[in-house]
Design a protein that fits this description.
It contains one helix and nine strands. With 136 residues, the chain is mostly beta strands.
Length: 136
Amino acid sequence: MSGNAGYNYTVSVSTTQSGTYNEIPSSNGTFSRTADVLDVTDTTNVGYHTRLLNLLDSACNVSANWDATNTALLAVESAFENRTTLWVKVLPDGVAGNGKKFPVVVENYSIPLDVTSSTKVDVSFQGAGAVIADDA
């Protein structure tokens, strides 16, 4: 489990929605959900904008400790190279059933090359479908 100060989160990946999820050894991450906002203002709005939410989107970014043998990182790299979809499960408190999961494509898989004491990998996932509740 990853996290700091008693707040444990996990980010895991699977090749299928109901398959086995393997945890990414993450040191930090972000799960975000956004929406396209459409301005539908017309001249009857008396000086105010009118907006509607349109398409929803999701993303997850993770920094992890790189490990050439980690099952999750191998799956992520393979999905990137083969342009295949993965499923990501995000558990904000590390408790099964309390999070979300969604299909993704791997937008970025990079290993920063610097002189620090450990090797990291940065991964960006872009949503490729609906976000659903984690069914534990």
